[in-house]
């Protein structure tokens, strides 16, 4: 049984993250614009793994018309300054999530609806350290992605699928 965790940021976290973003923009001599802040706010508040298109749609929902290129550039900027992580779940586009703290987590990706769940296991971290140490390998990053059907989709289509396989 896998404990599926969520890394949804704690309340009040958005203000802190926005403060860090503003400081990073100033440090890179980039203007702090309403558009950039609105894009960052959507990502920080969601706690989800959002594509640039999803961020655009949510911006439109709250009355911001922002070009897709601006959305994508701002999300990439958040990654560059260490406030977001970029994921490629082999969907043909990237997804972004807020980066809070150094804790590593891995992903369960539903190939039917594209939903992403997260899990964190210390025993996996220990195993990884053991493997790396045996190989004399210095690990910089890990990407563990489990592809399949989430419980809901599995209940809907899994039976049919299993009959075929
Ligand atoms: Zn994640
Ligand atoms: Zn699913």
Topology:
Layout: E1 4-5, H1 13-27, H2 34-46, E2 50-51, H3 52-61, H4 68-80, E3 84-88, E4 94-98, E5 106-110, E6 116-119, H5 122-135, E7 145-148, H6 151-164
Parallel strand pairs: 5-7
Antiparallel strand pairs: 1-6, 2-4, 3-4, 5-6
The number of strands is: 7
> Tally the helices: what do you get?
6
Fraction of helical residues? 40-55%
Write out the strand line-up for the largest beta sheet, numbering strands in chain order: 1-6-5-7
**Class computed from helices, strands and strand pairing:** alpha+beta
Ligands in the structure?
zinc ion
Basic shape: flat
Largest sheet: 4 strands, mixed
- Number of structural domains: 2
- Give the helices and strands as they follow along the chain: EHHEHHEEEEHEH
Radius of gyration: 18 Å
User: What's the rounded overall pLDDT mean?
Assistant: 86
CATH homologous superfamily label of the largest domain = Winged helix-like DNA-binding domain superfamily/Winged helix DNA-binding domain
CATH class of the largest domain: Mainly Alpha
What fold name goes in the CATH topology slot of the largest domain?
Arc Repressor Mutant, subunit A
What's the N-to-C terminus distance?
24 Å
């Amino acid at each position: 049984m896998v404990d599926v965790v969520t890394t949804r940021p704690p309340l009040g976290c958005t203000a802190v993250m926005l403060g860090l973003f503003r400081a990073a923009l100033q440090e890179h001599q980039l203007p702090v614009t309403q558009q950039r802040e609105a894009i960052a706010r959507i990502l920080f508040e969601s706690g989800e793994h959002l594509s640039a298109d999803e961020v655009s749609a949510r911006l439109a929902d709250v009355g911001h018309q922002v070009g897709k290129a601006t959305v994508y550039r701002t999300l990439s900027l958040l990654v560059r300054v260490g406030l977001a992580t970029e994921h490629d779940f082999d969907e043909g586009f990237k997804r972004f999530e807020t980066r809070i703290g150094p804790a590593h987590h891995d992903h369960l990706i539903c190939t039917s609806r594209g939903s992403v769940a997260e899990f964190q296991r210390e025993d996996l971290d220990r195993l990884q350290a053991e493997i790396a140490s045996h190989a004399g390998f210095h690990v910089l990053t890990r990407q563990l992605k489990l592809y399949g059907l989430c419980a809901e989709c599995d209940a809907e289509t899994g039976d049919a699928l299993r009959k075929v396989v």
